[in-house]
From TrEMBL:
Pathway: Amino-acid biosynthesis; L-lysine biosynthesis via DAP pathway; LL-2,6-diaminopimelate from (S)-tetrahydrodipicolinate (acetylase route): step 3/3. PANTHER family: N-ACETYLDIAMINOPIMELATE DEACETYLASE, PEPTIDASE M20 FAMILY MEMBER. Catalyzes the conversion of N-acetyl-diaminopimelate to diaminopimelate and acetate. Residues 181-270 form the Peptidase M20 dimerisation domain. Pfam families: M20_dimer, Peptidase_M20. It comes from Effusibacillus consociatus. It comes from the Bacteria. Belongs to the peptidase M20A family. N-acetyldiaminopimelate deacetylase subfamily. Keywords: Amino-acid biosynthesis, Diaminopimelate biosynthesis, Hydrolase, Lysine biosynthesis. The lineage of its organism: Bacteria, Bacillati, Bacillota, Bacilli, Bacillales. This is N-acetyldiaminopimelate deacetylase. It is an enzyme of class 3 (hydrolase).
Length: 376
């Protein structure tokens, strides 16, 4: 019998030390210490920046099976009822990455004890929330040497009960891009508008025109979102604003519509420049590639769940959230799935308390599925 309690304990220890992207130093150390307590003859370990790659050597490998867990916390002040609250002021594991990591440790511990034929590669990836660890990790030599032939990841899902797994073949998460637009005109006295170029008015036009891209330029069956979440402009109530800044995000369900939306944004911005005789600069900030689940593998996994009864399987809808696991899936066949953790608070909420019973569900499903995959 494989005990899952140790991984609940590790989850609580990880929960206490949330760290921002590429600063997961204590997290990395705790994971390395835990891995070093296992019998070492079946494992090889490498680090990449604050990430870790672990190979559990198979008995007679013909392929490498990958599992990826992200490692970083969020700049949120925790407000849970936990005794094991964050000890890092202003930081919290509010996106379940503590779950993802402890499940990763559980999976690798299981296969050290019960070896399979194939190699298992467990990937602890830094900086999912930003600036994005997946892309540079994929480009690293450390990763290339152990590149898996197929790869899986999960994400906790507050809205599903424990024992439920949700996923879908094809697109699961959107293409995302940040959007920053800086406008510079000519400021002046509020009573002399004819001698100035008002960037508050320009910014207002810009917001409404950006919304018309979604309603007029994107195929209604191919969803897209442009949200301007923040506007800043001007200095005082009776001074015409010289500068304005718009900050937002773009989300699309296809790679093609992301580039179309950006082309349209650039045209709208050019029009505002001409119309208001001002200068505008666009910065797309951080971009995440879509999470696209390989159809056959995902369908096979969903059928396997159904047939074995390992978990209740739900075919979910795609979501407009972003995840940098998409970069792995752009190169390696695999999929991501939602793991039900049954909590009323959403991801990134200061009060989120995912149900730890889901750790046992995930370990049961992943260890059996990976073992089955290896024997196929
Ligand atoms: Zn998150
Ligand atoms: Zn997350």
């Amino acid at each position: 019998m494989f005990a899952t309690q140790p991984f609940i304990d590790i989850r609580r220890r990880l929960h206490q030390i949330p760290e921002p992207g590429f600063a997961e130093f204590k997290t990395q150390q705790l994971l390395l210490d835990t891995i070093s307590m296992l019998p070492q003859e079946r494992i090889d370990v490498k680090t990449w920046r604050t990430g870790i790659l672990v190979k559990v050597k198979g008995r007679n490998p013909s392929k490498r099976i990958g599992y990826r867990a992200d490692m970083d916390g969020l700049p949120i002040t925790e407000d849970t009822s936990y005794e094991f609250r964050s000890t890092h002021p202003g930081y919290m594991h509010a996106c379940g990455h503590d779950f993802h990591m402890s499940i990763g440790l559980g999976v690798l511990t299981y296969f050290v004890q019960y070896p399979i034929d194939d190699d298992l590669i467990v990937i602890f990836q830094p900086a999912e929330e930003g600036p994005g660890g997946a892309k540079p990790m994929l480009e690293s030599e450390e990763f290339a040497e152990w590149k898996p032939d197929c790869i899986f990841a999960l994400h906790i899902a507050p809205e599903y009960p424990v024992g439920t797994i949700a996923t879908r073949p094809g697109i699961l998460f959107a293409n995302t891009s940040e959007l920053f637009i800086d406008l510079t005109g000519t400021g002046g006295h509020a009573a002399f508008p004819h001698k100035a170029n008002d960037m508050v008015v320009a910014a207002s036009h810009m917001v409404t025109q950006l919304q018309s891209i979604i309603s007029r330029n994107v195929d209604p069956l191919d969803s897209a979102v442009i949200t301007i979440g923040r506007i800043e402009g001007g200095t005082k109530q009776n001074i015409i604003a010289e500068k304005a800044r718009l900050e937002g995000t773009i989300r699309t369900l296809s790679v093609d519509s992301m580039s179309k939306v950006k082309t349209r944004i650039e045209a709208v911005v050019k029009g505002i420049e001409t119309g208001f005789d001002c200068k505008a600069e666009i910065d797309y900030g951080a971009n995440y590639y879509q999470v696209y689940n390989e159809e056959n593998l995902t369908r096979e996994f969903m059928d396997w769940l159904q047939q074995t009864g390992a978990a209740t399987v739900v075919e979910c809808r795609e979501a407009m959230t972003g995840e940098d696991f998409g970069y792995f899936l752009a190169e390696i066949p695999g999929f991501m799935f939602w793991l039900g953790v049954d909590t009323p608070y959403g991801l990134h909420h200061a009060k989120i308390e995912p149900d730890e019973a889901a750790i046992e569900v995930a370990l049961y499903v992943l260890t059996r599925y990976i073992a089955w995959k290896s024997n196929k």
